């Protein structure tokens, strides 16, 4: 038994994604090799502007310093 960590193979390169093709998921997938395309994987940037919660560090320090 081989335990391989494969975190969801829904990932397809940009070319495969465009053509809704099945991507092999390799760094350079077969489809791109056959078609001489540049295989790229773009990470879906869902993160928009991290909400910076400004917590007063002074209070933390104050607790430490007791
Ligand atoms: Zn692909
Ligand atoms: Zn590809």
Automatic annotation (TrEMBL):
Coiled coil region boundaries: none
Biased composition (Basic residues): 44-54
Domain of life where this protein originates: Eukaryota
Residue ranges, annotated region (Disordered): 44-66
Signal peptide annotation: none
InterPro entries the record matches: Zn2-C6_fun-type_DNA-bd_sf, Zn2Cys6_DnaBD
UniProt GO molecular function: DNA-binding transcription factor activity, RNA polymerase II-specific; zinc ion binding
Zn(2)-C6 fungal-type domain boundaries: 12-41
SUPFAM superfamilies in alphabetical order: Zn2/Cys6 DNA-binding domain
Identification of the protein by name: Zn(2)-C6 fungal-type domain-containing protein
């Amino acid at each position: 038994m081989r335990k391989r960590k494969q975190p969801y193979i829904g990932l397809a390169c940009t070319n495969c994604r465009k053509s809704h093709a099945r991507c092999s998921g390799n760094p350079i997938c077969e489809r791109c090799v056959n078609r001489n395309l540049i295989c790229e994987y773009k990470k879906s940037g869902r993160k928009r502007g991290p909400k910076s919660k400004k917590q007063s560090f002074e209070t933390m320090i104050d607790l430490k310093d007791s």
